[in-house]
Amino acid sequence: MNKLFIFLINQDVVVPQSLEESDAGEIIHHLLQQEFYIPPVRIRAADSGKAFRQFQQLAEPKWLNQSVIQY
Fold this sequence. Notes:
Layout: E1 3-10, E2 13-18, H1 24-33, E3 43-45, H2 48-58, E4 67-68
Parallel strand pairs: 2-4
Antiparallel strand pairs: 1-2, 1-3
């Protein structure tokens, strides 16, 4: 089953976050406090790795070649 992912970005770090995880709100809140931002990209994927690969294909060039953190 595919999940809806958003992405949080800070400099060279991209964190894919499923909105369907029970602790998603906590994680998003914590990362926003650390100056991460959320670009206008939403992706449905089976897991964070697949979501990140799709993000790399769709994202603006300034967001490419980012590191990924999976929770």
